[in-house]
Amino acid sequence: MIPSYFPQGDLVGVLTTQPLDRLLDYKAPEGGCHLGAFVEVPLGPRKVLGVVWGPGQGDYDSAKIRSVIRVLDLAPMRDEMRDFLIRAADYTLTPMPAMLRLGTRAPGLGDAPSMRKVYRLGTRDPDRKTAARDKVLAVLRDYGGLAFTLGELADAADVGTSVVKGLVAQGAVLEEDAPRDVPYPPLDPDHGGKALNPDQAVGADALRAALRKEGYGTTLLKGVTGSGKTEVYLEAVAECLRMGKQALVLLPEIALSGEFIERVEARFGMRPAEWHSGVTMTERRRCFRMVGQGDAQLVVGARSALFLPFRNLGLIVVDEEHDTSYKQEDGVLYNARDMAVLRAALCGAQVVLASATPSLESWANAQAGKYARLDLTARFGAAVMPEMAAIDMRVEELPHGRWVSPTLRDAIANRLEKGEQSLIFLNRRGYAPVTLCRACGHQIGCDHCDARMVEHRFQKRLMCHQCGETKPIPVICPSCGAADKLAAVGPGVERMGEEVAALFPTARIAVLSSDLYGSARAMKAHIAEIAQGGTDIIIGTQLVAKGHNFPLLTLVGVIDADLGLQGSDLRAAERTFQLMRQVAGRAGRAAIPGAALLQTYQPDHPVIRAILNGDEESFWSAEAAERRGAGVPPYGRMAGIILSGPDLKAVFDLGNDMARRDGPLRQIGAQVFGPAPAPIARVRGKHRVRLLVKADKSAPLQAALAQWVAQFRLPANLRLAIDIDPQSFY
Ligand code: ADP
Ligand code: ZN
What we know:
The chain is of the alpha/beta class. The chain has five domains: 5-102, GIY-YIG endonuclease (3-Layer(aba) Sandwich), CATH 3.40.1440; 115-179, Arc Repressor Mutant, subunit A, CATH 1.10.10.10; 198-376, Rossmann fold (3-Layer(aba) Sandwich), CATH 3.40.50; 387-428 and 491-623, P-loop containing nucleotide triphosphate hydrolases (Rossmann fold), CATH 3.40.50; 637-724, 2-Layer Sandwich (Alpha-Beta Plaits). Helix content is 31%, strand content 23%. It has 20 helices and 31 strands. Helix 9 links the parallel strand 12 (273-275) and strand 13 (298-301). The two termini are 45 Å apart. It binds adenosine-5'-diphosphate and zinc ion. Zinc ion binds at residues 446, 448-449, 451, 464, 466-467, 469.
């Protein structure tokens, strides 16, 4: 038995956030410390954050062992959380310190509770307007009532602190003494529930019953966009709150809008705790502490909220569970959807996975009976699913360099006449994907990556979508020196904006693309304005496919439905299916029925056909049969190994060596493919080579991978990353 308390002077083993491969021994400080306590410990000349993980090893010279500096004023990490971090680390083959960093991602955790000054929007106008003052006031308005510290506010507005002080003196900004980290106001589960339709009522009953059983379980909640899934899972949240347990609702970062928070507030009477990139550091710290001591009942957050130290978690909702952004693609490579299920299994909580177009993984788990499944079949109220049709581009007459077909143009014109909104969807940021020299054929590429530079005319620059590098748009070809021969080739959303403006000169047009906004808040504000009817024609990337409500929208036109079908990605069909169904689902959410038109050169492609006829079950069955035949996820297991380094030969040599010495993998019947250049073979000047490991579903893949990788000593400039269940094959 591990003791739960260590009196002063006892040896404790501390896991720190520093990249060391073992626990460090310290002496418990004055007053002792609990198992799981968050502590500050000396490491060389520094003080670092750690957690008391167990008794010390005692294999060090005890005279040299130093004492824990102090125990932080935070609820100790619970056993189940430590378990979760260990299991998540084992699953993703992540070192524990990196895992602990995920579990301690709030600033100033060690600061003592005390009063501090916070700043809010005041009621008076300043005597004199300046650009700097306007920036401060805009930030305060943007964040709708949230409190800032002086430093945070000045940083967010990009002004000096004296500007804020000046506004305080004028009464335009209020300075208040506030206690740090106050509890979140209690939520009332019976405040604003809606009367449910019969489908919804069945769903809500089932979820409530599952919660009452007090144990782990996962339910797939499937229903088209607008069918009322949110209302149903909020009923499950309500039940969870009634039981005195905590709930977590995860959304893709991009869907975490003020609109959603207001909806939760309307349901429960108070705002929930929020955890995402749009909240201030002060609020994040408060959230972390309050979750730990049970003074936050509901957290609405992005994927990393999963690592908050909940006290008694009863329910995790993963909304838009198919969304690829749940997979973290750098640092710790984890899929928040899968980790949510793991966490719930460890603490006996319920999981609800909500989606209109579930991932094949979740669909298969429901098929196999591992997950319960609930279906909402109709849209809520009068709204019906849009009518879907293909526009066969092989027969449309289009001049060179134009992308809106006559059929689509007529449909948009028709909506304009009726005062309804249209959405033109193209999943390509920027103006044009290729800049080509008409004299020599040279295409402008990134200096650091094997990728073409994308023209962003709005920003007047070329940009690499791999590394973010930008350069001015050249007038002279860097290859042959010809002047004025460089041409933009292919469409991006900015270019679509031009074409549509030329077709409909009097229409109000908005181009929605994440890179056109200074901040996530500004983007969300613009989306809200569009939803109110501020625009006739919206042109957007997949940003618009994600959870936004455009009630006046009745037409969706997809410029290139074939785009996602190219490439060798195992999930290409699934992704295209999901994305097209999601985008189409944007149309006709209110009383007016909508239509979705897909421009395609392959109207008979099985995926395009499945999208059009909406027969989802047969699409999934067919896709499942194909994957089962190939022994790939979810019917087999895969791991990607990415090796990268500055010297191509060294990277390949290591890759070949690894492929040759695959004993531990062969023992479990796994196969190694590669090494091959990664699809983007060079990023930021580093060459990238990929190996792919494929194993049976039941094979102990992680243990074998760990053994395999341990055989190799990596030179300092080579990096190896293991990606379990890779989602993208970059
Ligand atoms: P989904 O999450 O499936 O996209 P929502 O829960 O957002 O669907 O519901 C779509 C719309 O219908 C929302 O505006 C929501 O407020 C409304 N709605 C859903 N269920 C009800 C209900 N039972 N009573 C009143 N309005 C509802
Ligand atoms: Zn680049």
